[in-house]
Amino acid sequence: MSTDLSAYMLKVAKGDKAAFRFIANSLGYKMHATAIKILGSSHSEDAEDVVQISLIKVWQSAPNWVNKGSVEGYIHKIVFSTCIDFFRRYKSAEEFKDNYSNLEIINNNYTTSELRKMLLKNIQKLPQDQGEAILLHYFSGYKQREVSRILKKSDKATESLIIRARKKLKTILPKNILEEFLDV
């Protein structure tokens, strides 16, 4: 994003509603796209709810925001954690299937939703910078160079983060999850 959102976020931290609207308008589409990728394409309405809840969290947490990383990365983390909260609301797969009957069933009797939950749970266990790189690259669809810019790291460092994260995930997750979501 060509505009530096940090200046706007500092204004949001002081209660500036216009700056908040600017950030929401600038990143709203990306937030929704990220939520859809994490929750699944059959959960468009839920993704809208996730975006609304995430925006509330951004507003409420703005006074505590520290200008160390990018605003995009910060907001992406909020969307991610809100999606995880959504999954936690549906503790059993049966409850999730009852509410969302159009889930695609894939091998080993796992639903796409269950595989996505497993992947996200394990991404949370990665070191923070690796998890952010994987989420931005695979779930938000950013190119590696854009991930580097968002994380304020060199292209080589970002490439290394993604490679290390994928290697770690390969050791702990079934191959079908990695193929389904990370094109491994």
Automatic annotation (TrEMBL):
Alphabetized GO MF terms: DNA binding; sigma factor activity
A GO BP annotation: DNA-templated transcription initiation
Gene that produces this protein: rpoE
Domain RNA polymerase sigma-70 region: 32-91
Ranges for domain RNA polymerase sigma factor 70 region 4 type: 119-169
Superkingdom of origin: Bacteria
Keywords: DNA-binding, Sigma factor, Transcription, Transcription regulation
Family under the similarity heading: Belongs to the sigma-70 factor family. ECF subfamily.
The protein's name: Uncharacterized protein
Xref: Pfam families: Sigma70_r2, Sigma70_r4_2
Xref: PANTHER family: RNA POLYMERASE ECF-TYPE SIGMA FACTO, RNA POLYMERASE SIGMA FACTOR HI_1459-RELATED
